[in-house]
Structures are given as C-alpha cells and as structure tokens.
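Minutes, project check-in
Item: structure for the 148-residue chain
Input as provided by the requester:
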Amino acid sequence: MSPCTLTVSRSAEGPGRDRPEIVCICGSTRFVDEMRAANRDLTFAGVIVVAPGEADELVTNEQKTALDAFHLRKIDLADRVLVVNPGGYIGESTSREIAYADAIGKPISFTDPRLTSRRIPVTVSDFAHGWPLPAARVQPVTITAHIR
C-alpha cells in the first residue's frame, strides 16, 4: 500500500460538531466491493464511515431483519447518507433506508443518480424493533434523479 495523506473533514453545523463528518453508507449487499471502495475513499478523506454489516455466510430472515433495524441506528448517528447504487439500482432494504433517512431529515446523495422516479411506501411498522418514528413524521417518499 502506498503512503497517503489523511485530511480530516469537519462537520460545521450544530452543537458538538467539532468532529469529523459522519457518513452512513447504504446500498445492496450485491455491491459490497463498491461500498468498501466508498468507505476507503471517505475514510482517507477524513470522514467517519458507518456501513452495512457484512457476513461470510448466508443470514437468516430473522438476522436480516435485525441487521436492517440496526442499520437504521447507524443512519441516526450519521450527518448524511451516501447510497452506493451502481447502475441506479435501489433494492427494497435500501429503499426503506432512504425513506427513513429522509423522514429524519438526513441529506442523501447517490453514487449513481440514474433513477427513475419511484414512490416508496413506508409505515411506522417498517421502523420496528423499538425505534419507531412518530407516525406524523413517516410519509411515503418519492425519489427522483436525472437519468444520464
């Protein structure tokens, strides 16, 4: 590995923000290599990165449900969300994460903005496991981006 320079990116807004920016990576597990690359690039840019958990073996439905809920807590910690979506792909779990991030006011960016407009129906039960949002804050989200 070649030597590199680490520049710390500081988050400027809000109380207690004299710390590096925190970014939560979201995306399909089919893009694990791309998420690792984004994690590496952000880390060397001085950003604290929280990313989806990884498993070497297949996970059960129960484990996936728990991991999905746990990832929402990572979004809570982040200053913003980066969706890794090569080819514009957004799966069901990532759609829920985007809707959640939007509902709690997190800025969201995409590595590939090629999305068609899509409406993501979200209910409070989608954010179960003891961390529901107030019903008034959870609304369906429409994701729109320009197609290149």
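Outcome recorded: DSSP finds three helices and six strands in the chain.
No further action items on this chain.
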